[in-house]
Design goal:
This protein has 259 residues and is an alpha+beta fold. The protein has twelve helices and twelve strands. It folds into three domains: 2-45, no CATH class; 55-159, Uridine Diphospho-n-acetylenolpyruvylglucosamine Reductase, domain 3; 164-257, CO dehydrogenase flavoprotein, C-terminal domain (Enolase-like, domain 1, 2-Layer Sandwich), CATH 3.30.390. Strands 4-5-8-6-7 form a five-stranded antiparallel beta sheet. Bound molecules: flavin-adenine dinucleotide. Flavin-adenine dinucleotide (FAD) binds at residues 26-34, 36, 66, 94-95, 103-104, 106-108, 110-111, 113, 115-118, 152-153, 177-178.
Length: 259
């Protein structure tokens, strides 16, 4: 990436005005993904002074500012207290601590990365995204939309739930991108999520329907999951292998959340 200038903004209005001024102006979170590409950026817009580094208990939900780092998220006692700490566990598997000290929650969610461990685990919960100037949508809605929302992601809100949860990142070496990630939560209902297919994570609606209507044969649930999941090939592995992994880990995850 090459950037011509950098502005640390002092207000939302200033940030949004700059963002709208040119398609070559970009918000910068941790800058790790931006730096990896070879985009020609005109102005980098830094939100660091906008008080977005907070994780707050808001009663029914936990609110996370978009500039919170992955490491802060992973270490937060509020996040560790949610559904046997599954979000902390998933995030702790992304690269190393030095990397996670820089990567932000905002950049990780906004980017809709197919391989994202954070998105996969968040889809196991009800998550709302708040954009400036005034748009709220669920994480599911955001992922279903083509492209990226033309605004600034300010906060994400995770609805609290009392659930048992399972997360598995499958990768060839420990610091690699996942070739598959799976999250299962069991609160009042089951939520089953598969990501890095290599497309972005998605909920498995037929599998969830089976389980939430009383289906209790986990092998059958895993079979449904492997049938319904849309997978593809990537440099790292084949779609067929991904389906085999889905079978194994959905069954294992269901056993885990029912212990
Ligand atoms: C080498 C490498 C390996 C990785 N491995 C993994 C992995 O194994 N698992 C995994 O889950 N992730 C992985 N990631 C992704 C990483 O965890 C982060 O999700 C990613 O770097 C984005 O976070 P960032 O803060 O660096 O975003 P940035 O690079 O700053 O921004 C990313 C994009 O989001 C936009 N943006 C940032 N913040 C906002 C905002 N508040 N509002 C609107 N737009 C915004 C930027 O303009 C840019 O387009 C990897 C990344 C790298 C570079």
């Amino acid at each position: 990436m090459k950037a011509n200038s950098y502005v640390s903004v002092g207000s939302w209005q200033e940030a949004y005005k700059l963002l709208k001024a040119s398609p070559k102006n970009k918000i910068i979170g941790g800058g790790l993904w931006l730096k990896k590409g070879n985009a020609q950026v005109d102005t980098l817009i830094d939100l660091s002074r906008l008080n977005l580094k907070k994780i707050e208990d808001k009663g029914a939900y936990i609110e996370i500012g978009s500039m919170v780092s992955q490491r802060e998220l992973e270490q937060s006692s509020l996040i560790k207290g949610l559904s046997n700490g599954v979000i902390s566990e998933a995030v702790s598997q992304i690269m190393g601590p030095a990397f996670r000290n820089v990567a932000t929650v905002g950049g990780s969610v906004y980017g809709k990365y197919g391989f994202s461990d954070l998105i996969a685990v968040l889809l196991g919960f009800e998550v709302e995204l708040q954009f400036y100037p005034s748009k709220t949508m669920s994480l599911e809605e955001y992922l279903a939309q083509p492209g990226f929302y033309d605004g600034i992601l300010t906060h994400i809100r995770i609805q609290k739930k009392d659930a048992r949860a399972f997360f598995k990142k499958v990768c060839l070496t420990s610091l690699d991108y996942p070739i598959l990630n799976i999250c299962i939560t069991k609160g009042e209902k089951y939520v089953v999520v598969v990501g890095s297919r290599p497309l972005v994570a998605t909920r498995l609606t037929k599998t969830m329907e089976y389980l939430n209507n009383g289906g209790s044969d986990f092998k059958e649930a895993a079979r449904i999951a492997a049938t319904e999941i849309k997978v593809g090939d990537s440099i790292a592995t084949k779609g067929e292998y991904r389906k085999e992994l889905v079978k194994v880990y959905v069954e294992r995850g269901l056993e885990e959340v029912n212990k």
